[in-house]
Amino acid sequence: MTDMTADATPVLATQSRSLWATALIRLRRNRAAMLSLFVLIFMLLAGLFGPMLAPHSYSNVYTQYVKVPPSLSPYPHAENIIPAAESALSRARVDIGTITIENGRAIIEVTSEREIDPRISRYLDRSDVFFNGEVTEIAADGLSATVEADVQELYFIMGTDANGRDLFARILISLRISLMIGALATSVALVIGVTYGATAGFIGGRVDNVMMRVVDILYSLPFVFFVILLVVFFGRNLILMFLAVGAVEWLDMARIVRGQTLSLRRREFVQAAETLGVSGWKIVQRHIIPNTLGTVIIYMTLLVPKVILLESFLSFLGLGVQEPLTSLGVLIAEGAKNMRNAPFMLFWPAATMTVLLFALNFLGDGLRDALDPKDR
Amino acid sequence: MLVYALRRLVGAIPTIFIIITAAFFMMRVAPGGPFDQERTLEATVMANLNKTFGLDRPLYEQYGMYLGNLVRGDMGPSFIYRDKRVHEILAEGLPISMQLGMTALLLALAVGTLLGTLAALRQNTKTDYAVIAVATFGITVPNFVVAPVLSLVFAVILSWLPAQGWGDWRQMILPVIALALPQVAVIARLVRGSMIEALRSDHVRTARAYGLPSRMVVVKHALRAAILPAVSYLGPAAAALLTGSIVVEQVFNLPGIGRYFVQGALNRDYTLVMGTVVIVAVFVVVFNLIVDLLYAMLDPRVRYD
Amino acid sequence: MKIGRITCAALSVSLLALAAGTAGAVTYQRGNDGNPETLDQHKTSTVAEANILRDLYEGLVVYNTKAEVIPGVAESWEVSDDGTVYTFHLRDDAKWSNGDPVVAGDFVFSLRRIMTPETGAKYANILYPIAGAEAVNKGEAAPETMGVEAPDDHTLVITLAQATPYFLELLTHQTGLPLHPASVEQFGADFVQPGNMVSNGAFVLESNTLNDKIALVKNENFHDAANVALDGVNFLPFEERATCVRAWEAGEVQSCSDLPTEDVDRLRAEYGDAVRVVPYLGTYYYAFNHDDELLSDPEVREALSMVIDRQFLADEIFEGMLPAESFVPPGIGNYSTGSPKTDYFDMSMLDREDKAIEILSAKGITPETPATIELMYNTSENHKNVATAIAEMWANVGVNVEFNVRDASAHYAHLRDKGDFDVARAGWIGDYSDPQNFLFMVESDNDGFNYANYNNPEYDGLMDAAAAEIDLDKRAALLQQAEALFMRDLPFLPLLYYSSHSLVSPKISGWDDNIQNVHPSRFISISE
To answer: Omega of the bond prior to A324 within 30 degrees of 0, cis?
Structure first.
């Protein structure tokens, strides 16, 4: 173990000053990590501004288009226009004659045994398929008429959900929510977990024992009741949810950091610092935490997906996001239920999540390599 | 070390007592009770039920009774499954959950370590990226997607394996894979990260410099250090796997105990929830002890006084 | 010598059993809703339990495959002119699985046990029509005071507090099943365990493992055993409905008792007649809190009801359910008049919306100056989708909705404790086929079910009059009037009629669709 002393000194000297600067330079050289960073920034922007720019609002319901599959051509598809007109006008209790479609305008002849209500075109307007409906011609006896309306072209590039809302718009808003949850809950877990774990591991002995027993206790309490109680006492809001998730997820983090710290504090460079009279907190800050960062970052990239998926369970208990807002976890859970009748409802949210996590993981690995104190 | 282990186990008794107490009162503060169901019960009937189960007594009395029974090894009657007592229910399901969880854990540890080591040895090559990709996929795609897809593909479409149920080894394959997959991913990533560090550390470099064959260096020296974070992760992972996974159990219709954690709570089956809490508490204590001991064994720098 | 012979006999018996087990024994793998909470017919409350207990035990009267009441242990019966005294004549050949005869005293024992408070029977109230039963259940009278007597082994006389035209229906419920007094006395609550249980139905209990299966085997002592085609039934509990579907597709079960609603259309397209979607005796509704300031206005309630496109809910959100235009589901028994018609259901959706806008804007509620109400529902994917769709419909007329989601236990506890709410989701599945079983919920003195706090003396008066009426047609007319008030005042807002969803293998015969969704294994056979 004598070889340890060799590298202890340079680490001590350079670490505090240039840890982040060096890391940044090295990160720039990692192509996979940089690409991932761009993907993440793109997703963040999509989540922030996408919902404003998307063709549909995430809460807009198209009753005619429930669970329609993704399509690059606009809805309604040609063969569906006539049935749509028939179904819209069937509620008006008239007999439908010929329907022709010219230049995106439907011309419908109707007859009735009673006098035709000139408001009839409203039935077409009410449908998601048509707009600008008008009665262009009405016979003198009022028993037959011609109704015209423009066909409304709607694009659902990722299909629609079980209530007839555009899935693309919902994925955009879910990105905003899920990224926020992921970032906040993970930071809470990170800050508490790392500080707690490093402190316990560094002080060791009885304090460590007590601190880790507290972790055990929190770990064993039934999570469902914890959530239900949060709802009862604090009502439903998103901030609370982050706290709840962070408050649970720091336990594993603390345990891992504490394990690493136990091993680090026996290392020569830490002991050297102690001998030099550096204060305990400074050692933790300067030597222990930076040396655990590699593992912590990897664990963080594992924590983000866990948190995002856990959120859907919280929504189930009434604590998570509520309609019409949504999150990736909720969308994936809904998609899983519909995987056999509307597979796209699972595919797109899951694909978004996968891309997000790929980026996160490559970035995480890149960061880990860049921050590696022994590798410079 | 034995003294240390014994001390830890004795020390665990107050921990478990605190857990039981906290869980008991936490549960009772939550709104709703075991008899609030979709079908509202007649007032008289409700009163009779509360009396039968002692719910009409003061809370501290119920708590005292629960502790008294627990000491005698009786976890009380289940509020929902009225023909059985909680320890009977748990005794039925625990061996199944253990069998599943243990198999999944070993599988995850073996495959995860292998993949992680492989990736670290070939850092930033295609192999590395492939491993990260597989691992990421394993973490991204949640159990409630993986499990039904496995069952759909291998049971319904290919007819190779049973879709659900418990009894013969063929029914174990799909659930074990579904349980192990996310853990493989986590372990692979943790091992990869620490392996890279370990390979660069001086004693491994020294060993290499001495001309030891590289495979031996990896196995003997690097892996020993690299597996440490994975080992501390194993504690909670083992507890989570052994107490089963609600999703996998439901999707494959397995009679384990995992589903009682969520369902018991949603049903407000107080005694059943307490049963699961006790089990988790014991597992957590035991596995953390094992992890700490493993740590001391794997890393001579760590010592417990 | 002795020991040798016993072993020998045991061996030959087990060999026989083995032979019987292999030689074309037909065991029905039957998907069930979930775990039964108990197999004690007095503690039971769920449909999953009803399905199993129906196969284990035979009551005085039973359902046939079409859910019609047919003789069970009782061969015949007479009803007194005032409808309060039922005299049942028990068949001679009814036997328990251990060979004991089933006698009238067994029923007396059972009916007394269910009312004893210490039993903690969840559905005791279903038999309250029996004279003195409620007092016994409340602990105010001794069980012996109940109106149940056995003059001899084959005659059972049940006296009711007042005429109850659906009393025979009530007896088909699992709470009316007999139990074997000697085993209850011997084993106490453990009489339900395999090995202890003695039953009188077509099957007997062999094993019971939570979340795994409940295995029944044919009861050779059953009086109609000759006509029971199956050698055994395994009830498999499926909490996850999609799992049952996959098991069915893989051929591991022959029927599923419920289907994931979002998958019904796909299954229909793929498996055609194997998918059974049948009207069921239940209504999915929202309760309006009549103590709420906004919702205490009957016109507001009516407007909110008008704008709900129930056809859309039934077609797109809850596949297989039916749009509800009354609270009592159609096809129910003892309702010759049928439910009353409500005018606006004949109007087109647009006209209904116009009317609602007119009503609400007169009260200052418009999309520009909206009112806000809170909709409380318990967590489930479909409840969420329904709530989202309805929120959209209400938003069109100026009523914004905020959601309050809880888990089922907290949700119902909140309703039971008369917690504050505006609109709350609930559902009701009838326990017996009679409109009274629906309309009684909002009687002003019904603490448990009247979530709406509806208090209308006229309504209560009609319900009382109906209860006292023996003539079924006159009674139906009274109930119809009551329901007309219900639809006018809308304590509950009916949305959808439930339907049962099953997946039945074409190999199965003896499974007839019926409104009670009752399919006794006794009548079922499986072809190879």
So the answer is: yes
Distance CA A195, CA A218 (A): 17
- From B23, B288, B302, residue closest to A263, measured CB to CB: B302
Q: What DSSP element (H or E) covers C340?
A: none
Closest CA in chain B for residue C426: B38
* Stretch (H or E) spanning C214: strand C213-218
pLDDT score at A6: 37
Query: C427 pairs with which residues across the strands?
Result: C284
Residue spans in chain C of domains classed CATH 3.10.105.10: 279-500
**Strand spans (E) along chain A:** 95-102, 105-111, 130-138, 144-151
Residues of B in contact with A6 (CB under 8 A): 202
* CATH code, B106: 1.10.3720.10
Query: For B250, which of C122, C189, C240 is closest by C-beta distance?
Result: C240
Q: Is A195 exposed, middle or buried (0-12, 13-18, 19+ CB in 10 A)?
A: middle
Instruction: Look at C410 and B32 and tell me if their CB atoms are within 8 Å.
Output: yes
Q: Give CA separation, A376 vs A14, A29, A373, B190, C232, in Å.
A: 10, 13, 7, 21, 72
Answer whether CATH 1.10.443.10 is correct for domain C279-500.
no
- Closest CB to C409: pick one of B32, B43, B52: B32
Give the other-Cβ count within 10 Å of C182's Cβ. 15
Residues in chain B within 8 Å Cβ distance of C409: 31-34, 36-37, 266-268
Contacts with A215 (C-beta within 8 Å, 6 or more apart), sequence order = A196, A251, A254, A255
Number of domains in chain B: 1
Residue located via tokens 């859309």:
C312
Q: Is C134 on the interface with A (CB under 8 A)?
A: no
pLDDT tens digit string along A180-194?
Answer: 888 888 888 888 999
For CATH 3.40.190.10, the residue range(s) in chain C are 8-254+505-526
Q: Do C243 and B253 touch (CB under 8 A)?
A: yes
Average pLDDT for B119-140:
82
Contacts of B49 in chain C (CB under 8 A): 120, 122
- pLDDT computed for residue B185 by the predictor: 84
C-beta atoms of A126 and C316 within 8 A? no
DSSP H or E segment with residue B152: none
SS3 B198: helix
- According to CATH, the topology of domain C8-254+505-526 is D-Maltodextrin-Binding Protein; domain 2 (3.40.190)
- In the chain, the amino acid numbered A89 is L
Alpha helices in chain B (DSSP H): 2-29, 43-52, 59-71, 86-121, 126-140, 143-151, 170-200, 202-209, 214-216, 223-226, 228-242, 246-251, 258-267, 270-298
Q: Do A350 and B137 touch (CB under 8 A)?
A: no
Is some CB atom of chain B closer than 8 A to the CB atom of C38?
A: yes
Of the partner residues B141, B284, B291, the one whose CB lies closest to the CB of residue A219: B284
Q: How confident is the model at residue C221 (pLDDT cuts 50, 70, 90)?
A: very high
Tell me: ipTM over 0.90.
no
Mean pLDDT of all residues in A276-291: 79
Query: Would you call C189 and B41 a contact, using CB atoms and an 8 Å cutoff?
Result: no
| pLDDT single digits (tens) A333-348 | 888 888 888 899 999 9
Q: Which range has the worst mean pLDDT, A239-248, C125-134, C186-195, C364-373?
A: A239-248
Q: pLDDT tens digits, residue range A10-20?
A: 444 444 456 67
Q: Which residues of chain A make contact with B234, given a CB cutoff of 8 A? A: none
Segment 318-377 of chain C within 8 Å of chain B by CB:
none
Among the partner residues C385, C404, C410, nearest to A163 by beta-carbon distance = C385
Chain C residue closest to A66 (CA)? C316
CA distance A227 to chain C (A): 11
